[in-house]
Structures are given as structure tokens and as C-alpha cells.
């Protein structure tokens, strides 16, 4: 009605309650498509509504009626969420921890905190597979490798491993491999951290290794069956021992030596490489990465050239680009599980790239002299403390040399720890008469005075730490003092002011494509929005500054979050119990299979060790099964990409007596909701096996169906895919596992802190320990927690529906230009789909790699390449990409299709065309000579949006996979 000008002033209008609801609701920020767009997009796929598209896609037989949470069902607004997280953070009590054991307080340089850890330009990147648009983080990771290599004194380092304990277990596996599995004992010195020992013991089971822990002086190799020995330097209780003779003796007996070590100590101690160690492992946490109640932190593993092909994890190498300039790339990938599957060196896929970058930048910022100064300060404070204790005479200081950890014997350790507790100080109680005190970068001289008061046990202290300083002498034996230089490369000696570091980090960041630029539609990797509200709590002191072995009553905020998150995940997955220990998807797989193994054993079925895995499975599946000592039986897929059920049935029946598990991904890795999944689960159960579901595709299940509902017994979730933890350029991740009730007693435990859970009746034993910290990388759990709590049950269900919608919308647009490989019974795809490029090899000489590289010129990261089907691209748009962004990506692919057509119809040369020449970096485009048969302008600006904003690849294609310098900066 438009009665302009008459009586407007007296009209009354009521305000709806709806209009008064908070304006900062979250689901509409995460889920891109509006209700109108949803209908339009569904219509373009031939359905009247989003729901009818989803109904046609997800089989009715597995559909959930609805998802309902007992908490957060409605979803909190962003401001309510922040409020809630602040309350949780406040429930965590930040005491000063001197516990050590591999975790230390550290000053995270604010410039690194804000510009890397809190910066989506660094944390939203993918693993640097596409080297031309990843030179920044590749350089930073190479810095990390150089740092590790220099400090350990060994030439080869990876970037990176999940934590120190699992790094030690990987080293143990290397020793086993080096000895070709012929020597079946691995010895661990009792001066290693307890969590390291337990992880190795658990891991050894799968390799059929015997782990013997022994006091250093009791170690002998008489059995002739020893493949390796693990010692710690400095030891868990602080002692610094000269292992020179020990190593010679081990080598004389044909035994490899692994040393767990500490980077800060190695700035002043003789490096393990110079002592003769074969492998060195440890954590880079205290190089500027917060403790975070256990992680995430980067662990390292260094070794000699001789064993480089046996190394686990990602390795960055120096190669050359098409113009002959040095350029970086991931190296030696043929070791990895994507190619080697069950023969891989390890199952490590997602590692700790972001944290490795932080540690590397810490070293870049401080430089070798700065690091030494920190180390000497820490050592000096420990020295002052030890001297003061001697003067006090209330306790007895151990006589051995130490770096940062002082061990004391006392009448009543608990009494002293209680006194410390009253001053908000945590000490490590080794036993009722032994305490250790570990100093770190953040300890002050006043802190030492406080400690004197505690240890004085009521006696007056008639000196101060400052007054003692001049009397302190270093206790490190001269033979163990580091003489060799380290970090001599200019990168570690140029950026010591904040401006210089800021610009260096910015320079690297600008070379890398991240979600700040465009969608990264990597099939199976679920690169979705990592919302700011989700990320904020991660760097709050209430979460960052808690030692993982601090008494749990100091971590009530964390514990409450674990309980809530566990409950939410149980509801989402249809499971009864969750373990938050595994630090990545692959470690979740390993943990889940070990749960199954422990379950069979508890029933006397020690022989059940056959694991059926479809050929289309992710490489980590067979690699993880191999680590559990399982025998792998592969089953094929049918023409539609579904598991060949008859073949599966035959395999299950043939292995009926020994069947342990099936590993299955759902929806399938081919992006299809297989109709036969319930039957598949039944076949396995009928033959005595358990069903392990790989939860990587959970984004297509949440709210619509669930692993528990479908019939799985165990499943890992990739919180860094479905539940919004950013990929960090190759980690961190979290891979918690959910289980049905009958498997709950077997979930991982921890030797230092009880992880709670279901008390195991006599015979039922937890599988052991699979990560160094009881709740894995606790610090990043707020991300997934806030995502779920803000989305609520409806927001999450909508997310799954819109993820399916977006994939179908793109598939529909692209099907006129490219064959789409697999579809469900009604012709729809799940949340991802495969574009088949195989035909273009014959018609135009074009391979998936050429398309991925040309996409860089259009400002995009290529989709998943040649997996699970060689010669294809797998696209997963996720729910958080807008229609405009989906269209832009489709436009790019359609434009590239036209470029391929030019080759097909002879207008462009088969060998010299815009695809084969891609990507086109400025250095190439602006060179004085240009000999390509297409224009510079077309090479760089093939689409209109590039005129508005252009992301420039910094280097051109690689001539060769040849490595100049395998894994460190060249001087
Ligand atoms: C990502 C992925 C994994 C492995 O997870 P990580 O966290 O990288 O170890 C396993 N299976 C599938 C299908 C995946 O996509």
C-alpha cells in the first residue's frame, strides 16, 4: 500500500519478537547459501528444493530423523560464545609450572603470535603440494629443518612430527626397518620421559618388537637381538650425561642409537650427531609455541643421509624451477603412504606445519646468539637455584650435571609440593622423596626467590637469588660444551628487529595462496571456513599457559570443554565414548585399530589380524593397519565406484577365522553414498570383524546420518576438516576417535595423567598410550567446540545439506564441459565429486597437473589430484563457499576447458600452450624475451576478476624433481 502523505504519522506498527533476536547469529555466516539461493541452486540441479535434493542423495535407509543436542542445541551467538569461552578460560588456573617433561613455558614473541599464529594468511593454507603457490611456507619449513639439523648435528631433518613421544616411536620403527625386522628388541633407558616410554611400548606391539626399559648402567646387548636403544639427553630428571662411550659400545654391538633431546639445551651442549647418535628426536615447543595443555607442537626427527629414505613425515627439499632458479618443494614423497600404502615408512600425513613455522621464526628472530643467551640464562637460573638449595640445606641436590632441571632428594616431596601449590607453583614429584624443578625462558630471578621460600620449609632464607649469582659456576662438563657453530645462514642472522621479522614473514606469506584469497576445493580435505570467533580462544592465556601434566583441578575449564565436546561428538556420531588423544586423522586410525585389536584380544581372539581395505581407501588406511601388525586384504570397487560387495563377502568369509576389521570411508572416497553400506557392515560383523569408519567424509554425514547409526564400531573424526580447525599449511590437526560401548574400555590411557573414562574391569586393558599428551592437542579443541556450539543442531545439519548442494551445483555446471566420474543412484553426488580428465591425455596431451597449474593463473589452488582415481580432479566446495565463489571456480575450469579445446582442434600447440606453460610468474611474463605462442596478457589475465585482484605465483614450473640440497638451507 502506498498512501503517500496521508495519516502516516499516526500509524502504529508492531515489532515482531523475531526482529528482537540477536543480530550476531553464526550459522548464516558459516553456511553460505541463503534460503532463496538454496532453492534456486537445487532447481538448477533438477530438484524443487534443497531437501528434495538431499532426499534423493542420502539413502533413506541410513537417514537420521534429526540431530538433537542436550546442550547448545539452538546454537550460541558469536558474542555468547566468546562469553562462554571466557568463562571456561577463567576456570583454568594458570600456575607457574616447573614440571618440565618436555613442556616448558615460553615467550611467544608477539610479532609471531599475531602475524603467524593468529593470521589466516598462515593458518588457512593447505599442505604445500602446489609448490609454485607455496614458496613462503616451504622456505619457513626449510628453515625449521635447518634449525633441527644444525642443533642436532645430523644432516637430514623432517618438518615435522606430531609430538616427541610419537617421534621416538617413529625412530624405533626406523631402527626396526634399518635392521630389516631381524632384531626384535628395542631398549629404552629409564631416563626417558614416561609418556615417551609408554608410546613406544604401545607402538612396538604392532611391529612385534619387544621393548625393554632398563637403567642406563644395566643396558647390555648380549642377546644379539637388539635393533636400537633410546636414551634421553638431558634425561627426564635433568641429568646431562656424556653418551660418547655408550654410543660407541652400542655401535660395536650393531645397535642403532636414538637420542631424545631438547633444542634449547643443544644450543649449549655438544650435539648428538657429534656424539655419534643415529637418530635424534624431540619437541620444538619451547621455541615460542605455547604449552596449550599438551599441544599442538612440532616434533622433529633428524638422521644421517644414509637413512633418509626411511624417515617418516614431510621433508622439504631444494630443487630448481624452469628458469634454473632454486625453488623449494616437498621431497622424497615416494616414501609416503599415498604411494607406498602399507609399505610406507609411516602413516604420518597431517603434521605440525604451523607450529614448525612458529618455532622456525622464533629461531630466525633470536638468531644463534639470542638463543644461546636464553639458554645460558635458563641454565644460570637453575644454577642459582641449586646453589641456594645447598645453602638452605633442607633438601639434597643431586650431584649430576644439569642444564635446566634440578633434581632434589627430600624427606617429604608431597609436603614441599603442597607448599609450592599454595604459592601457585607446580613442581614435578618423581616419587615420595624426589622432586625436579625445570627452569625456562619465562622464569625470573624473583621466581627463584619464591622457590627458595617453598624449599626452605619455614626456615628463614638469608640470601637472595641475585646475591648468589656471582658464585654460580656452570656444571656442564667441558667435554659436553658445544663448540660447533649453528644457524650461520643469513636468514638466522638478519631479522632480529621486529620490523625486519615482520617484513620477512609478510614476504613469505605473500607468496602463498590461502583461504584469504580463494576457495581451496580439495576433495577429502574439507577446506571450510575457519571462523575468527572459533580461533580467538586459542591464544588466550587461560588456554595457552597450562602445562599438560598440571593437576586437573587447575584445568577445570579445559575439562568442562572436553566433557561437553565429547558429548556433542557422541551425539553427532552415534557413539558412546570418545578419546581426544590422537593428534591427526592417521593417528586416530591407528588408535582405532588398536582399540579393535585390544578388544579381540580381550576375548581371546589373539589371532584376529586380517584387515579388509578397499583399493580406493586413503593411503593412511593401509599404512595404519600395517602399523598395528595387521594383514591387509584389498577389495576392489565396481564400475560405479562402490565397494564390490560380492568380493567383500568372499574376502570376509574366506578370512572368517582371522577377520579383525574393515576400514571403510563413507560416503565413499568417490563421493557417493553407497546404498549397500548397511549390508557391508553386516557382512563384517557376521564374520567376527569390527567396522572401522574413516571419518574424513563426516562433512557429508553430520545431522543426516552417522557412523554409529550406519553400523560402524569405531571412527576417527578429522577435526581439522569437518570441524573447522584450520589446516595450518600441513597441520596441526586432531583425530579423536569415537567408539561403541563395547570398545570403550580399550580407549587410550596415559601414564602421567588419568584420562578418566570407563574403569576397565580386570581383563579389559586400555590399548596403551598413543600421544604424548593425555588429550592430544588440547589447545585447538576450542575451535571445533565453538563451531558446534555456535552452529547448533540445525546449523550443522544445514551445513551438510549445503555442502551436498554446493557440490551438486558445481557438478551440474561442469558436466557440460567435463565428464563427472561417479554418481549415486539418482544421478547426484555427495559433498564432493570427481572430474575426469583422463580423456584429454589422448586428445590434447593434458594431465591433471597441467590443469592444476593453469588454475594458479586464475588465482586458484587446484583440487585433489589423481586420488582416488588417477587422471582426475576431486572437488569439494564445502558449505561455506558462496555461490559467487563456486561460479568463479566453475568459470575458471570452463575457461580452461576451452583452452584444452584449442589444443584439440589444432589452434594451440600440444607441447607449447598456455596450460603446459602454467603457472606464469611475473619474472617470466616481464622478461625481455617472450617466445610463447600466446600473449603475455592472456597468460596472466584469462578471466575478468584477475583485473580486480591477481594472486601471482612466485615461481614457474619445475624442470626436474632433482634435489640440489635435500633438506637444509644452502650456505
Ligand atoms: C585426510 C584424510 C586422512 C588422514 O588424516 P590426517 O589428519 O592427514 O592424518 C585419512 N583418510 C582420509 C579419507 C582423509 O581424507
Give an overview of the whole structure.
By secondary structure, the chain is α/β, with parallel strands linked by helices. Among the domains are: 110-363, 3-Layer(aba) Sandwich (Aspartate Aminotransferase, domain 2); 575-778, 3-Layer(aba) Sandwich (Aspartate Aminotransferase, domain 2). It is 37% helix and 11% strand. The radius of gyration is 29 Å and the shape is globular. The structure holds pyridoxal-5'-phosphate. Residues 349-350, 524, 584-586, 618, 620, 665, 669, 694, 696, 718, 733, 735 line the site of pyridoxal-5'-phosphate. It catalyses: N(6)-[(R)-lipoyl]-L-lysyl-[glycine-cleavage complex H protein] + glycine + H(+) = N(6)-[(R)-S(8)-aminomethyldihydrolipoyl]-L-lysyl-[glycine-cleavage complex H protein] + CO2. Its cofactor is pyridoxal 5'-phosphate. GO terms for molecular function: glycine binding; glycine dehydrogenase (decarboxylating) activity; pyridoxal phosphate binding. The glycine cleavage system catalyzes the degradation of glycine.
Attribute tags:
33 helices; Aspartate Aminotransferase, domain 2; alpha/beta; 11% strand; 25 strands; 971 residues; seven-stranded mixed β-sheet; single chain
Q: Helices, strands, pairings?
A:
Elements: H1 27-30, H2 35-44, H3 50-57, H4 78-91, E1 96-97, H5 110-117, H6 120-123, H7 135-152, E2 156-157, H8 164-178, E3 185-189, H9 194-207, E4 210-214, E5 226-233, H10 244-252, E6 256-262, H11 263-266, H12 272-275, E7 279-283, E8 299-303, E9 316-320, E10 326-330, H13 337-340, H14 353-392, E11 396-397, E12 405-409, H15 413-422, E13 425-426, E14 428-431, E15 434-438, H16 445-455, H17 465-468, H18 498-510, H19 532-535, H20 541-544, H21 556-573, E16 577-579, H22 585-602, E17 610-614, H23 620-627, E18 631-635, H24 645-654, E19 659-665, H25 677-686, E20 690-694, H26 707-710, E21 714-716, E22 737-739, H27 781-814, E23 833-836, H28 839-844, H29 848-857, E24 864-865, E25 872-875, H30 883-904, H31 922-925, H32 936-940, H33 945-948
Parallel strand pairs: 1-13, 3-4, 3-5, 5-6, 6-7, 17-18, 17-19, 19-20, 20-21
Antiparallel strand pairs: 2-8, 7-8, 9-10, 11-12, 12-15, 14-15, 16-22, 21-22, 23-25, 24-25
Helix pairs in contact: 2-27, 3-27, 4-21, 5-14, 5-18, 7-14, 7-18, 8-9, 14-16, 21-27, 22-23, 24-25, 27-30
Bound molecules: pyridoxal-5'-phosphate.
The site of pyridoxal-5'-phosphate has 15 residues, from helix 22.
